[in-house]
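re: the backbone from monday

yeah here it is again, tokenized this time
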């Protein structure tokens, strides 16, 4: 399975190797910048967008089940914690956020980069978060 985004604000899920479209999602109001499958729930996906939001999608419900708002500018990247209860986002607003999917709120905003945060990843099975920035730095964060 491959997921792609496009300028028409849609994402498409493709089956490999035949290349057939399995599903198309519509919900973001601007271009898509990233996507990541849930670590355990194969029917769940997170996406990030130029519209400043992060969205959680459920394929069994055929749509967006949660929109996370709080960044001031484009969200470049998103990733799941290995437990599947948290999502991290990286934004052009120079911050990263840790979102609690169950409570549907931001748990922690990581400030300190001097330029756009371009990617964010959780160290598997830990509370450590790694961010990379256009300010030419990497930062390690304790998300507890």
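seq for it, each position gets an aa:
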């Amino acid at each position: 399975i491959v997921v792609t985004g496009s300028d028409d604000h849609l994402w498409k899920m493709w089956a490999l190797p035949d290349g057939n479209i399995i599903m198309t999602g519509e919900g973001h109001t601007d271009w898509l910048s990233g996507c990541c499958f849930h670590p355990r729930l194969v029917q769940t996906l997170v996406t990030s967008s130029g519209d400043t939001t992060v969205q959680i999608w459920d394929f069994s419900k055929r749509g967006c089940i949660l929109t996370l708002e709080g960044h001031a500018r484009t969200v470049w990247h998103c990733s799941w914690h290995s437990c599947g209860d948290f999502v991290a986002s990286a934004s052009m607003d120079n911050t990263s956020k840790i979102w609690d999917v169950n409570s549907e709120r931001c748990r922690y905003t990581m400030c300190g980069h001097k330029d756009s945060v371009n990617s964010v990843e959780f160290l598997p099975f830990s509370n450590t978060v790694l961010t990379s920035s256009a300010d030419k730095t990497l930062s390690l964060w304790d998300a507890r």
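The longest strand covers residues 63-69. The radius of gyration is 15 Å.
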